[in-house]
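Reagents: none. Just compute today. Manganese-dependent ADP-ribose/CDP-alcohol diphosphatase.
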Amino acid sequence: MGSTNVLVSSPGKQPLFSFGVVSDVQYADIPDGHSFIGVPRYYRHSIRVLQRAVRKWNNHQNLNFVINFGDIVDGKCPPDQSLDAVKKVNNEFQKFKGPVFHLIGNHCLYNLPRDILLPLLKIPGPNGQAYYDISPGPGYRIVVLDGYDISAIGWPRVHPKTLQASEFLEKKNPNSDKNSPAGLLGLERRFVMFNGAVGREQLEWLDGILQDSTKLKQKVIVCCHLPLDPCASSQEALLWNYDEVMNVIHQYKCVKACLSGHDHKGRHSIDSHGIHHRSFEAALECPPETDAFGHIDVYDNRLLLWGTDRMQGTEMYFNP
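Predicted 3D structure written out:
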């Protein structure tokens, strides 16, 4: 339990900075269950995975911060327990001796509306948005995208973004259950209600951030709950408009990696522009006494993910 997946090479040089990663805790005080495709889910055990992660991150002593890649509690959490469950998991994150940055996922939004969730998790996005950026170390910027900017969940029912998402799904998904991809083919299987899109205003914001990073000669790591590359995700887990987002990103050379959750399985790909995509293994799907979390050492020319147990270590090299 808790063994670190050792990478092929371990450079002697000190990283510029390091940060912890975990995704899809999806805690709920309910019996174990299964996903819609039959994968076992361990709702009560997942918070123990997080507790062990926080202990290991604190013992490391050189981690600058932690990023939670979304889905802090599960959608099956009883509604009258949602607020307490989010607070309970958030309290575990707060035991880390440093800053914790959160992304929102669909399960977060099943439980709490944005106006409660974002302040609780101290997400610094403007006007109810959950996108923001931080500059954590020399020559780097981390950009956090809000993959549920345009979404049928999380916003008030009559909000323009809810209406836009509902209209989009009506056109793209003929099923009465909009969470079902039945009958959809290939990449069209992403057009389900548990996914979402990056809106026009956020795309313009991203473009401005990447322009600025290019001028400042910063390297950029993009984080989003939803994956941005079909080779790093199942078709059903992709951002609705991942192609639009990547069209913006590919205009610049500063983005070196895109990190995500949501897919649960954990995958790594390198796209046609040399950008690494890594979706993380879910804490929720760890059988008792197993783990899925890690930390990333950031260098001038690589990111090294040191995974624990079910999270695979990954070397991500790029041109500096």
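The radius of gyration is 18 Å.
Action item: order primers for follow-up constructs.
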